[in-house]
Amino acid sequence: MEDLFWIGFVGAAIALLFAWLQRSRVMSFSEGNEKMRKIAASIREGANAYLKHQYTTVFKVFLVVFILLLIIAFGSGGKMLSQFTPFAFLTGGIWSMLAGFIGMKIATNSNARTAQAASESLNKGLRVAFSSGSVMGFTVVGLGMLDITIWFFLHKNFAKILCKLYIPALADGCPPCYTEFCNPQRERREQYDELELAGSRRCGRPDLYGRQLEAQRAVRTESDGEPRRRRGFFFFRPGA
After folding, report:
1. Beta bridge partners of 227
2. How far apart are CA 84 and CA 56, in angstroms?
3. For residue 45, what are the CA distances in angstroms to 50, 104, 105?
């Protein structure tokens, strides 16, 4: 069942596409006479000022919480809080602010159009109102599903992708929670290195790959002859 996570991407795409279609439908209706358009423009101006002030305040609180999560996650080595959590909080906050921005835009663009449509018929006014409300609803659902699915994919496949991309970055150690992914990859890479190096020595003319490999191993070897552990990619430290 875990391999069916791609359904989340499909669902998010459908929700966002439907929200965009509904937004286009709402914007196709008339905004009324000149007085109605003037009032609507004033409402949009006030809403934009409110949104700017609100996001400025929320950003400060958001930044403080993000830093606290970073300290807890990395200060405890991932024991008290997963090291993915601060970044998941970051993306979740960004999607939330984007959904709020889109919702405010469609609300301030639909109010005069709803009033004009209601003046023509109640049924038409309700259709415009429900269509504008569905934009916000499906945007929240689509962005939320997209965020969750992306993080599920990264958390499930991060170690596999990391090990396949660049094994030497892990050197002689892997993060403990990713050992089951990294060790088989590293062992295959070491066997391949040995075969390449043996072939180069047997020919009596080590190629560029062989020389580079020997140089890398020399750098990783300390005075006691034990391999030295390097730091892994991003925020992981092998062998920590």
Report:
1. 221
2. 25
3. 9, 11, 11
CA distance 186 to 238: 13
Selection from 196, 16, 29, 22 nearest residue 112 by Cα: 29
User: What is the distance between the alpha carbons of residues 61 and 110, in angstroms, rounded to a whole number?
Assistant: 31
Please name which of 89, 99, 98 lies closest in space to residue 138, comparing C-alpha atoms: 99
* Pair 72, 81: CB distance under 8 Å: yes
- Kindly report, residue by residue over 152-194, the tens digit of the pLDDT: 888 777 666 655 554 444 444 444 444 444 454 455 555 555 6
Residue 57 pLDDT exceeds 80:
yes
H helix intervals, the chain: 6-27, 34-75, 85-120, 122-165, 179-203, 208-220
Question: Would you say the pTM of this structure is higher than 0.85?
Answer: no
d(CA 220, CA 94): 41
Angle at 40 between CA 36 and CA 43, to 5 degrees: 145
SS3 2: helix
Please check whether residue 220 is in contact with residue 230, taking contact to mean a CB–CB distance below 8 angstroms: yes
CB neighbours of residue 225 within 10 Å? 6
What torsion, rounded to 10 degrees, do the Cα atoms 96, 84, 87, 102 define? -20
